[in-house]
Each structure stands twice: as structure tokens, then as C-alpha cells.
Amino acid sequence: MDDRFFEREYNPYESDASLMESKSRHADFADISVNICGIAMKNPVMAASGTFGFGEEYAGLYDISRLGAVVTKGLTLERRCGNPPPRIYETPAGILNSIGLENPGVEGFIRWEWPRLCRSGIPVIANIDGDNANDYYRMARRLSELDGLAAIEANISCPNVEKGGMAFGQHPESAYEAIKAVREGTNLPVIAKLSPNVTDIRQIAEAAVNAGADAISLINTLQGMAIDIHKKKPVFHRTFAGLSGPAVKPVALRMVWEVFEAVRVPIIGMGGIASWQDAVEFMLAGASAVAVGTANFIDPFAPLKIISGLKKYLIGQGIRALNEIIGSAH
Ligand SMILES: Cc1cc2nc3c(=O)[nH]c(=O)nc-3n(C[C@H](O)[C@H](O)[C@H](O)COP(=O)(O)O)c2cc1C
Fold it and tell me: In which band, very low, low, confident or very high, does the pLDDT at 165 lie, cut at 50, 70 and 90?
């Protein structure tokens, strides 16, 4: 597919003469680089936490340095084995997952994954999950010792075990507490990853920014469940699980829109992004970058297709730089 195809797609009534004129005016160049709180990315497409492991499986398919950035699987202070199966269950427009944060722990990550990941040549963002504020602080501090880590993304969807298991990200006060702990533990950029399982996402985003978050990423999975009609029991051992994929996209887009109006830090948008058209919608709503999650399981090349689609979209629209469209639907 060449650029002209895309121009035709977006301007079906444009004459050939004006098409050629616009092409010569704008040439074949579009700058899709973005900078998120000091993280320089050659394109805005990152791999979402938990759907890309530590990059190794995908590295067998393509050069992962073609991505804008990689976010690691969620790390905890100690290693975790995760939940018993089933861990993933398909729904008509997405998946439910209950992985239970299987990961090698911060020390295991540093020892086994980081030496390879740090040579990828792109920004690597460590995603962390704490049981309490002190965990967040200790992990942020330890990871900050790594030479070359780009940022820390604090997943605040995890339960606060000291407050009865309610997720940190479900109340402004506990969201503030978790992000403050990360902020105190690091000088790296801090990205607060928000849970959509709240009434007003703007309040949580504001609390995270007040606690020192340099950027916001959203959304994590939406809480859902499935029931096995033969066993007459919930499918998952923990009853509830996280819904992701195309089903959540409209909700995620709405939340990016709301958070863009509420805070003045960059937003990393995710939730059901499977095509470059989805990515454009998120950027028009206010995302400065996007993360691809569940779509990796359907088509591991989805992030690369999104990168090239974004470029062609800009060229077709005669827009020189991706930055120009961020939030422009408001
Ligand atoms: C199997 C699976 C595992 C995930 N693990 C994590 C995780 O460890 N930490 C985290 O912050 N988000 C995790 N997520 C959430 C994704 O990063 C993303 O926020 C969410 O799935 C919405 O994007 P999507 O619809 O493109 O998948 C996980 C999602 C899936 C599907």
C-alpha cells in the first residue's frame, strides 16, 4: 500500500491534481517521534505491560528496537508464581485474564532479564506492583540503580494489603500514597498507571500528579468475570478477572479524554488498541503515546503495522509531526 492509497482513503473526493500537489508540498516525510517526560521515543507505540513478557519471545519474530518503548511485565519485590489455571478466557471482543503477576521479582529481573533488555536500544520502562507503599518505595529505589532504565511505571491497580485489599488506584488518597512512595524512591520519570475500575478517573489522575507523577498511563483492565455453566462455578479461582481488548476501547478512550482535560502531564493511552486507526483516535483524545496489549496475542506484528499506519496517515493528511494531533479533537 503506498501513501497515495492512504490519501485516497481519507480524501475520496479529492482530484488527482490536488492529490499530486499536496504530495509534492508535504513530501513523504512525517515525524512520528514523541517525548514523554524526557523519554525520547522514535515512535509513539509501546508494548503494554504483561503482554510482551520481557521482550524475548517477540525478539524471535522481529527486531524489538523498532518499537517506541517496551514496558516490562509487572514486577513485585519478591518473585511470584502467579495464579493456578485457567489464566486467560476468551470473550466475544476481548479476553479476561487472571495471571496473578507471575514474575521473577525485582532481583530476578535485574539478574536475568535486564542484561539482555538494556541492549535493545530503546527505552525500557519497568512496571512495578506493590502490596504496600514501602514495597513501591523499595522497588523504585532498587530499579533506579540500573544504568539506562528509562522510567518506572507504577501499576496502582494492585490491592493494598494493608487497607483490606482495596486497589491503590481506587481512591485518590491511596493512589497518592503509592505514587508518592515511588517518587521518593527514584529520580527517574514516574508514570502512574491507572485502574479504570473507579467512578471518577480524573480525581485519581489529579492525586497521582500531585504525588509527583510525570505521566499517566491508562487504562489497566476492567474488572469482569465468567461462569462455567457446566460446573456452575466462576471460571477463575479468584472469581473476578481483568477484561482487555477491543471491548474496552470506548471506555479507555473516554478516560483518556477526561484525564487530558484534568491534568497537564503526558498521557500514554491503551485499552483495545489493535490498529493504527485506534491509535489515531487515542492521540486525538489526548494521548502522547499508545501501548498495545491484547492485540499482540492476535497479531504479534500489530505494533509494527500501527507504526507504519500512523506515518502514512500523517503523510496522507499533510501533517508534518504527530505532536500536532495530540488532543486536537477537544
Ligand atoms: C495477560 C495480561 C497481563 C497483564 N499484566 C499486566 C501487568 O503485569 N501490569 C500492568 O500494569 N498491566 C498488565 N496488564 C494490562 C495491560 O498492560 C493493559 O493495560 C490492558 O490490557 C489494556 O490494554 P489492551 O486492551 O490493549 O490489552 C495485563 C494485561 C493482560 C491482557
Answer: confident
In whole angstroms, how far apart are CA 294 and each of 34, 37, 217, 243, 270? 23, 25, 16, 10, 10
Give me the pLDDT at residue 307, please: 98
The sign one gets for the Cα dihedral 236, 194, 35, 278 is positive
Ligand 1 proximity of 48 Cβ (cutoff 6 Å) = yes
**Domains of the chain, each with CATH number or no CATH:** 1-27 (no CATH), 31-325 (3.20.20.70)
Is the C-beta atom of 303 inside 6 A of ligand 1? no
Query: Which atom number of ligand 1 is nearest to the Cα of residue 94?
Result: 25
For 76-98, write each residue's pLDDT tens digit: 999 999 999 999 999 999 999 99
Which residue bears the cell 482530484? 15
What is the CB neighbour count within 10 angstroms for residue 87? 17
- 99: Cβ below 6 Å to ligand 1? yes
What is the Å distance from ligand 1's center to 48 Cα?
6
pLDDT at 28 (0 to 100) = 76
Predicted TM-score (pTM) above 0.85: yes
Catalytic residues: 158
CA 25–ligand 1 middle distance (angstroms)? 41
The chain-wide mean pLDDT, for the chain, equals: 92
Report which ligand 1 atom has the smallest distance to the Cα of 73.
Answer: 8
239 CA distance to ligand 1 centroid (A)? 18
Query: Does the beta carbon of 155 lie inside 6 Å of ligand 1?
Result: yes
- The three-point CA angle 99-103-104 to 5° equals 160
At 302, is the secondary structure helix, strand, or coil? helix
Taking alpha carbons only, the member of 131, 179, 187 closest to residue 154 is 179
Q: From CA 80, how far away is CA 86, in angstroms rounded?
A: 17
